[in-house]
Amino acid sequence: MNNKYAVSTFGVFASIIVATVGIGTFSYPNELSQFVGTDGWFVIIIGGAVSYGIILILIKLLQKNNWSNFTLILKNNYGNFVGSIFALSFAIYCIFSMAIGIRTFVEVMRMYLLEKTPTEFLIVITLLIGVYIIRGGLDTIIRFNEIAFWLMFIPIIVVLFLLLNNSDFTNLFPIMSNKPIEYIKSLPVNIYIFKGFEILLLILPFMKVKSRVKKATFCSITFIMVFYVLIFIFTLAVFTKYQNSVLLWPTITMIKSINIPGSFIERWDGIVMTMWILFYFTTFINSFYFSSDIIKNVFNLKETKLSYIVILPFIYLAALYPENLLELNDFRGVFFQSFTMIMIALLPLITLIKGFMSKAGGGGISNN
Amino acid sequence: MKECINDQIYLKTEENVAYLKELLTNNSDVVFRNFFIGKYSCALVYIDGMGDKILLDDYVLQTVMLRGKYISDVNQIKDKLLTVSDIKEVKKMSEGIKSVLSGDTFMFVEGLDGAYVIATRLWPARGVSEPSGETVIRGGRDGFTETIRFNTALVRRRIRDTRFKVVSRSLGVRSKTDVVFMYIDDIVNKEVLQEMTERIDKINIDAILDSGYVEQLIEDNNMSPFPQTENTERPDVVAAAIYEGRIAILVDNSPFAIIVPATLPNLFQSPDDYNQRWIFSSVVRFIRLISIFISLILPSLYVAVTSFNTSIIPTKLAYFIAASREGVPFPAFVEAIIMEISLAFLLESVVRLPKPIGATIGIVGGLIIGQAAVSAGVVSPIMIIIVSITAITSFTTPNYEITSAFRLVRFILIILSSILGLYGIMIGLILLLVHLCKLKSFGIPYLSPLVNPNLDDFKDVLIRAPLNLFKSRPKYMGTSDKIRQR
User: Fold this and answer.
1) A chain contacts of residue B309, beta-carbon cutoff 8 Å
2) For the segment B411-459, what is each residue's pLDDT rounded down to a tens digit?
3) pTM of the full predicted structure?
4) Using the beta-carbon criterion (under 8 Å), do A144 and B312 form an inter-chain contact?
5) CB of B51 within 8 Å of any CB in chain A?
6) SS3 call for A243
7) What stretch of H or E contains B171?
């Protein structure tokens, strides 16, 4: 770690949250309602617990390998060539998840704010801003995360208060009325909303106080879980489970329904959509930087500058690949979900096991 | 041309005077005065207008001429004869010449190994007066002047601490401007101090005419519109900063002190915040925050709402705006740019003009042209209101440089909003945020303590907590002494 920069505990906490809570927030109440109706909050809690389990694996992996960076861990465990391939496939996963995110984001944007602007133009603009942000390096991104955390969640609290007016919490009942198999079936939705915490593979090696790793990650996952549960409960309270399962983006529609008599702003969705651009940007730049960093380490480049130029066209092409929203939803279906699981859970787990097996109690891998 | 100064001081007064006369030839304001102390030939060299003649007449020449005959040895002159307090012996000619050029008096005595420099600096100087740029309701009325010694004295009157240090440097190959930096030794962040000293020592320029020169030469990122140092005319602001572990730089001939490192929240603070009751100060802080935000986005919001996202405002208001824009030949973007540019013209001309005419320009520009533009149908009345609100809100910030920086950002936001509407504004704000995240001032992040937050530091950012809660110094400054109040 030639970089002297050290990430504070709050930096880790905020980064994991803002990298995880993203564009999925708009659509997941719909998907959960389709599967389990009123019991989505339970599934979210299970999802949170599973995610924390994965996080513990990732932490263990880093700890075992002397807090070295992820690419190096892979290279050391599998040899230079195979390790590079694994690292590259991880980068490809990041690129795909970014591409799906950017396309969803741009489609939402076009629906609510800019009806006539072409998709390609919006994607290019968004990518260029991403480049500007990650040019600042890791410390800028962490600082951006820290500030974005406040800017994202304070307005949301205000919005939730405004929603109390037209919500009916009896819509939450009945509780736990589904067959157990339904809960298991709905678990993949969680993959989409909880992915993003893998950013800790990038930032934990730079963390200042390593002893607080578990506490910080636990707090962030709890925060994310509570946030998702709250949003889900509110969408249920406002819409009931029937309407929830037909709306494409229940969260946005919910905010649109805010109507305060005599207020200056009539349609809150415009304002809130503007605020929520941040939600997207934080997930985007974090994975963007992470994938650039992986590419840099795989090819032993000196700077991330070259690697993000390499990545840019791939994101652009992948984002434009689906013709429309339906195809986009297929795109992030079973295949992408299993890809995600393999990348953020299975790969670290196997690496960890391999590490245990190859050198029982041997010294940690040296830091370069 | 290289300056050739002889380092050696001759034993004979005549040789010294002849050398100086040759070196300072064609200078009508240099005064040479030859006289005798007893049998020793002596000479005084000073610059007319910068030396204190009364002091030289009454306490140097008078005593040495009347009592010079009692002196038996040349070394007794300084200790038994010269009735001045600030006198020092120099061995090098170059040192003495520099002192002469600063207003001191050079005294040669025949047979002495070296020469004397008598501190006689006195020149017509502006007295301490109220700083015009930073007025406060409650607080000291004294401001810095152009004389560096007065300024250090003003600060030292507020810090009577043995650990308070006033380190001086001479910058500028030709101007040899005195630059002083002040800090408290056991509070200051040593890394920042070292960094700043290195940057100051690296300066190699012919002349430093103002503290603005130093500021620009030591700044971290001079491609940014945001000032990464704080400048002030107020000694109480400097003292408060020094107590927080920051370093103040004073430059001779400049009434502006520079304070490093500066963070963005620092630039939004005024001494009034601390001298008045905390509830009121907190409200004022909040008002400042809102107003800077309004001044930043109001014109671009107007452009976005009228051209792109008409639906977010109530229908009645949308109709009202549309009706008032009826007959205006320009799109909202052009209208906004026209008005913003005229405001910039107005501000600039008011600053440049003499004060009595400035008021006239304000009336002509603001009232007459505004009224005429509306009735001629060039701009809509709503736009005039927006520009006026923007102008008023942008000046609630105590720091002028930060206002100008935000004015630039405002233009960029107007352009972005004309391309992408509300999304453009948000993009602009994100870019602004990222730019601010990237900035550092002497190793301290510019947005501290908003980034890398510490709960303790928030007592003095968005609100100003009661003074008895100010137990510790700002943590983000990395001060050595952390406790402020027990």
Assistant:
1) 113, 270
2) 999 999 999 888 899 999 999 999 999 999 998 999 988 887 788 888 8
3) 0.89
4) no
5) no
6) helix
7) strand B164-171
